[in-house]
Design goal:
By secondary structure, this protein is α/β, with parallel strands linked by helices. The chain contains seven helices and nine strands; from the N terminus they run E-H-E-H-E-H-E-E-E-E-H-H-H-E-E-H. The strands form two sheets. Strands 1-9-8-7-2-6-3 form a seven-stranded mixed beta sheet. Strands 4-5 form a two-stranded antiparallel ribbon. Helix 1 crosses helix 2.
């Protein structure tokens, strides 16, 4: 029997702040999972919880969709993220990036600043990939059944993108299998829960696969860890 647990965002926020900073002075939290699973909603609520803590503050959020150079840049955007955001923060310097417009099909000219902050939330497909795991304070995978995710995407962007979305979902599936994301993350969240709960303040945690690190953050978790777009814009992760 599978048992899911309802947990408070505020509790998770306190765990993050109590965890070690591994990307320079920043606690990097990666929210990963397939498109349409509910990553954006989870990220926004965790940001709200961090902002509500007496010793917290609203963290900057970087959505990987904003760094993609279109549909064909599904995973190869990482070099851009590394050079513009992660490397400066690792060195204690602020980063920046240019946001991709899924409407104009081009990067916008204005630089988006990423300050050196106690916490940075990185949301998007492959955000918790193996290359960054040693520097994560917390890794999360948000999941939902494939039919639910596809329906959300089609409701958001329209049926004309069905072929692109199916190709995108196939790429995600191959990446997560090769990366072993579900086995490596600290926390697996149900992005389409049926369990009644206050969604603004609580999330539903799914049991981690056997041998996975579990939901703790901090040095113990590290020791056990294995080594945006608007509706209709055509972004693959708008109902992230």
């Amino acid at each position: 029997m599978t048992v899911s647990l309802v947990e408070a965002y505020a509790t998770l926020a306190r765990r993050v702040l109590a965890g070690p900073a591994r990307l320079g002075r920043t606690r990097l939290v990666a929210i990963d999972g397939p498109s349409g699973a509910g990553k954006s909603a989870f990220t926004a609520r965790l940001a709200d919880a961090l902002a509500g803590l007496p010793d917290g503050g609203r963290p900057p959020v970087v959505h990987t969709d904003d760094l993609l150079d279109g549909w064909d840049d599904q995973f190869t955007f990482w070099t851009r993220l590394e050079e513009r955001v992660l490397t400066p923060l690792r060195d204690g310097r602020p980063g920046s990036y240019r946001r991709y417009s899924w409407v104009r099909r081009a990067f916008l000219p204005r630089e988006v600043p990423v300050p050196v902050a106690p916490v940075l939330l990185l949301e998007g497909v492959s955000a918790a990939r193996a290359a960054i795991r040693p520097e994560l304070t917390l890794s999360v995978q948000v999941t939902a059944p494939e039919p639910v995710r596809l329906r959300r995407a089609l409701d958001r962007d329209g049926a004309h993108l069905l072929a692109e979305l199916r190709r995108w979902h196939a790429g995600e599936k191959a990446h997560f299998a090769a990366d072993r994301t579900a086995d490596a993350v600290d926390l697996v969240v149900d992005g389409a829960p049926t369990l009644p709960h206050d969604r603004d303040h609580y999330y539903v945690r799914r049991p981690a696969p056997a041998g996975a690190p579990g939901p703790a953050v901090g040095p113990a978790a590290a020791a056990g860890r294995r080594s945006g777009p608007t509706a209709g814009s055509g972004s693959p992760g708008g109902s992230r």
